[in-house]
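Worked Example 4.2. Consider the chain below.
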Amino acid sequence: MPKYYYKAVDASGKVIRGEIDAPEEKTVASQLHDSGCIPIRIKSYGIFYKFLQLDFSSDLLADFKNVSSRDLLLFTQDFRTLLDAGLSVDRSLIILHDTTESGKLGEVIKGLLKYVQGGSSISDAMAKYPKVFSSLYINMIRAGESGGVLPEVLERLGEFLENIQRVKEYIKSALIYPAFLLSVGGISIIIMLTFVIPKFSVIFSDMGQTIPLSTSMLLGLSDFLRSYWWAFALAIIAGVIFIRQYANTDKGRLKIDALKIRLPIWGDLIKFVEVARFSRTLGTLIRSGVPLLQGLNLVREIMTNRVVGDSLKQVHDRVKEGEKLTTPLFQTGIFPPLAIQMISVGEETGNLEKMLLRVAKYYEDNVENKVKRFISLLEPVLILGMGLMVGFIVISMLMAVFSINEVGF
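Applying the procedure from the previous section yields the following structure tokens:
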């Protein structure tokens, strides 16, 4: 029988933690409700639950970092659970402050509680922390407050953040192995060029024998790296700084983002990610009661690609003039025909938010499939590339050695 770890609030408002052996999560929730407790979180961790219970986002550097997206997700889910159980906003914030495992988030919750107890609404209190709560988050909370459906809005926000986090973590985890291959291969080649080849260089110079051109080029590269490695390192650092500074300018960011979406394979992946983010965000906003025009403005702010964001401004202006959403979306050249058709059906049937969420799900799955194919192609290319470079080095050295052996004595 699996072991479940739970965090709950008892009748007196005290936070309790513990473990229960149960066949499923619903049984744990039922047992906690029967004992007069409100469950906040229930997780099945098996024999490794204590290890997985650790929050790696709240490490020794927590005070020097912003609230992580994972912490914000847990806060949203727990806040919704407490409000849905009938607790007031301020009482829920007190419990969340006592149960959070992130020091930075704890400070934010403490500040929210202070503003709420001072008479501010929770959305106005969140607006005091723009680095933690985005304008999208705040506007959805405000819509939930005005409509009296704050728990439902928090549930949608939790689903939204969870889906965004899932896609980001999938892409990051998929790129770990290729990055490892590239790092190990690069380090191996540098070691060969700076430590192994120089030993052969001494032998060849003592022999005074003409060596093949490829070997001569390799020895020259080795000498350059050993003599001017500092210049090479400075050039890389200067290049990175220049690109970063250029990317921080409006003109530079626009050109770099335009280049990204024109790249083969990777450009299509970026477009699909932006389409999925647009669809899920706008669908969630409309579903939460935010007007379409206001939602378009909010969505534009969270687009990571400036080209896509600028095109959405034109979409907003044309929708404001009375056009349908799909017409200007199609003319941006960013949205695929299938997405346009699905959104058009949503407009015609009056189910725009549902269709937007379906579009988001479709393209999120499409992104995962494209990443899988991209990684499956990238890994052998990296292995082949590293193998060719190492093979070139080895063959060049062997050719030089064979040329020495051919010298008559």
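The domain at 3-161 is CATH 1.20.81.30 (Receptor-associated Protein). Confidence is low (pLDDT under 50) at residues 46-65. Compare this with Example 4.1 before moving on.
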